[in-house]
Amino acid sequence: MNTLFPVEPEFPTGFYYHPGFINQDEEEKLMETIAGTELHPFHFQGYEAKRKVASFGHDWNFEKRVLSKGQDIPVAFMWLIEKLAAFMDIRPDHFAELLVTEYPAGSVINWHRDAPPFDIIAGISLNTDCQFRLRPQEKAKQTRKSVISLQVQRRSLYIMQGIARTQWQHSTLPVKNTRYSITLRSLRSAV
Ligand SMILES: O=C(O)CCC(=O)C(=O)O
Q1: Could you tell me if residue 104 is inside a domain?
Q2: Are 168 and 113 in contact (CB under 8 A)?
Q3: Within a domain: residue 9?
Q4: What CATH number has the domain bearing residue 40?
Q5: Is the pLDDT of residue 77 over 60?
Q6: 42 within some domain
Q7: Does an H or E element contain 165, and which?
Q8: Does the C-beta of 109 come closer than 6 Å to ligand 1?
Q9: DSSP letter at 190?
Q10: Would you say residue 78 lies in a domain?
Q11: pLDDT-derived band of residue 191, with 50, 70 and 90 as boundaries?
């Protein structure tokens, strides 16, 4: 059957996608801020992943599985945090961590749920689109049909909270060009 509108996949409760959250000028401004930010190789389970990161506010140590206080979030990101907080109708200081990630062409994120201390996860994508996937956390529910796939556009925002955060995993397919993401997370205890 022909339809006039693209069919949106049905997202798990708590997953929200908003294309065009920032405009082109704002994207450029963020790319300049990131260019002036020192990014470090990301280590996970003894391996160096292809991606580079810079974490602010709080640091989650994947090896030791502990959360510690990190460097202050640079002032240059504050307008983005304020814009997101206004959009979500929450206080800007609700966001306790800001993570900048650089994904070189060909890099992926494997299936995972975000670290336990975090609650709301909000991701803003820059420079290129990526194929983002969601699947249930519970092994018995992981079938080919249970995978939800969506094109996350540059300049878009996604938010994961509630069931989408606690009972679903997410991953991304290899990116065609260098992608940057800014991930903002609140702490569970802040709720
Ligand atoms: O780059 C993204 O949008 C996803 C980031 C992510 O899954 C993570 O940092 O755990």
Answers
A1: yes
A2: yes
A3: no
A4: 2.60.120.590
A5: yes
A6: yes
A7: helix 162-166
A8: yes
A9: G
A10: yes
A11: very low
Query: By three-state DSSP, how is residue 26 classified?
Result: helix
| 26 pocket-lining for ligand 1 (C-beta < 6 Å) | no
How far is it, in rounded angstroms, from Cα 145 to Cα 31? 36
Q: Confirm or reject: Cβ of 114 under 6 Å from ligand 1.
A: yes
**Residue 53, Cβ neighbours under 10 Å: how many?**
16
Express each pLDDT in 85-125 by its tens digit.
Answer: 999 999 999 999 999 999 999 999 999 999 889 999 999 99
**Structure letter (DSSP) for residue 76:** G
Q: Is the CB of 55 inside a 6 Å radius of any atom of ligand 1? A: no
How many other CB atoms are found less than 10 A from the CB of residue 37? Answer: 14
123 lines ligand 1 (CB under 6 A): yes
Nearest CA to ligand 1 atom 9: 183
Classify residue 25 as exposed, middle or buried by CB count within 10 Å of its CB (0-12, 13-18, 19+). exposed
**How far, in Å, from the CA of 1 to the mean position of ligand 1?**
35
* Residues 21-54: tens digit of each pLDDT: 999 999 999 999 999 999 999 877 677 778 999 9
Q: Which amino acid is at 145?
A: K
Residue 102 has a CB neighbour count (10 Å cut-off) of 20
Domain range for 77:
15-190
Task: Give the pLDDT band of residue 5 (cuts 50, 70, 90).
Answer: low
